[in-house]
Each structure stands twice: as C-alpha cells, then as structure tokens.
Amino acid sequence: MNNLRLKSLFLFALIAFSSCDSDYRNYEAISSGLALENRIIELYGSKAELIQPLETDYLLIPSDINNPITEAKVALGKLLYHETMIGSDAMMDEGMYTYSCASCHHVDAGFQSGLKQGIGDGGMGFGIRGEARTKNAQYAESQLDVQPIRTPTTLNVAYQQVMLWNGQFGAVGPNEGTEGQWTAGTPKENNNLGFEGVEIQAIAGMDVHRLVIIPEEIISSTYKALFDAAFPNINESERYSKLNASLAIAAYERTLLPNQSPFQRWLKGDYDAMSEDEISGAKLFFDKAQCFTCHAGPALNDMKFHALGMRDLEGEEILTVIDDATKRGRGGFTGNSEDDYKFKTPQLYNLKDVNFFGHGGSFQSVKDVIEYKNNAIAENEIVPNS
Prior knowledge:
By secondary structure, this protein is mostly helical. The protein is built from 12 helices and 4 strands, in the order H-H-E-E-H-H-H-H-H-H-H-E-H-H-E-H. It is globular.
C-alpha cells in the first residue's frame, strides 16, 4: 500500500512539474509576444497600421486616383504580366515571343529576378525561380535587354509612390519638384502623364522592355473581351492601347500583397503564427536594432533614399556596362550631388526565395546584409563615409 501511495505521489509530482514547465514556456511565449505587441502599439498607435488588406479588397489597397483597381482590370493585368505574345519587338527573330514582365519579376523568386542581372529580350529559359535564364548566344551584348541594376520586386508596390531604385518613375510624392529631370525622349518623360510610380513604370516598361500592344491583334483575340470588361467607359477607338494595357498591369501589381505571411497573420491575432525566435527577432527589429526607422508600414519600407555604400553590379558575369547615372542612384536622377549613391529602401517580405540582395546584388542572404550594416565598412570605396 505504501509503495502504491509513493508511486501515486511521484506520478502526481511528475505531472504537476511537467504542467508547470509547459505553462511556464507558454507564459514566456505569451509575454514575449505581448512585449512585441506593446512596442508596435507604442510606435504606431495600433497593430492595424502594419496590416495589409486582402488582395481582393480593392478599396483598401493604395491606388492611383487616376487608375482605380477593379476585378476586371486585375484579371486583364495578370494575364498581360505573364503574356509572352506581347514580346514582339525583339531585336532578333529568335527572341520573338520569348519574354514578358515575369521574365525579370519571377513569382517564385519573390517577384524579383532569379539572376543577379535580369534578362528580358535576348534571354533563354527560366528555371524554377528564374535562376536558369541565360543569354541567347545569337544575341550580341549590345542587343540584350538586361537590367543595369538588380531587378526590384513588384511585391508590395502598392506602398511605393515612386518606382525603381532611384525613384525616377512617378509624378507625385518624392518626385514633386523634379520635373526638370523628366527628359523628353527618355522613359522619364512618361512622368508628365501624371500617374504614380507603379503606373508610370508599367507604361515606360512597355517600350523599354520591347513589349507591344497592337489594337488589331487585341480585337481579333480573346483579349478583346477582357479589355472591354476592364475599360468599358473608354471609347473603343482608344480602348485597346498600350496605355490601358499598362494601367491593367499596374492594377494587378498593386494586388501582389504578402498578406498571409507569418508576421501578417500574427498581427491579425494568430499568436502561433510566429516562432519564439521570430518574435525575438521582431522585438529587436522594432526596438534596439532600429530597423523600423527605415522599414516601417505595411510593406516594411519607406519612401526615402539612403547611401549605404553597397557595391554596384560587377564581375565577369555582368552583361552590360553600368552607366554613371545608375551608379549614382537617386543623384543620377535628380542631378543633386547630395543625393549621390542613395538608393530606395526595399520592402522586406518574401525574401526566402531571393538569391541576391542590395541594389548590386552583392549579398547572398539577409544575414549578410545585417552583418554588413553592423560592420559599417562600405563595400564601394567611391561612396563617402558621410
């Protein structure tokens, strides 16, 4: 009897202590998450300030007042974004119908290029994440449509007023007062249309990346019904145009929102969505590490430009000469020397599938970037320490 009682007491103690240990761990997780929640509320007033809308909540997604998002417009833009048949201004016959927006903004590469330097016309193949796209041997380097800087993502563009690393596309926000730089005969001239950056990039990108909309071909294809649904109030004589195709692509791009990411789910109340390590990292991010000073809002970015001394594209694999204006970043666009070597703050979502970081792709991981910032030694010697 005594042995039975002893065993019972031991079993009870084991259960009790195990329960306490489990409760303690749960308490730690809850208290850690609560600390993060309180810090976010302290910074922004509410967690809601960081929450992204659903991709179908068109009225809640930031949009250009001159290009309201509609379901029909998004449906058209999604197809055109991936449509190689509009890749019909290729430099060589071998390149005809072999590229689209998605060639350099690959879905499985976080809507960036799977290569350090994206290739449109003149490229061949794709790979799982765009990493297997290569130069077509029939093309001379001067004929290639390649990026002189790492391809920026189309993810979270709804939260960007101006586009590209130097912010040259867009007629609003940071670009107010830069009208003197909207040079006639260059892609920057499109800013005079008055749209925000997402729309201007889509419009300019048509010509830059050798994409063509031929009204007669649209009218004789299944795309006619899609254009009719997307732009019912535009006269038919103007409906099947490059401009409207670009506006549809821009509307689709604005719906590319990582609203089901662990952090977004956590913000919405799913406190199991992030691990304890991730919560600890978030506490550092929004506090001591000061990451939030540049990476804030629903896309974890800002509309400012910073000179961090990162390298430009370089190496034997680079397929084009990098011009001085590109190397100067924001200063290459504004002409203001105080803007030299400054590049736009990138968004921080869906980076697991990204192979290159920094405007010159000189880093291979997020950890590399963090270590670089901690070391505070510039890669690019021509960038002043100041």
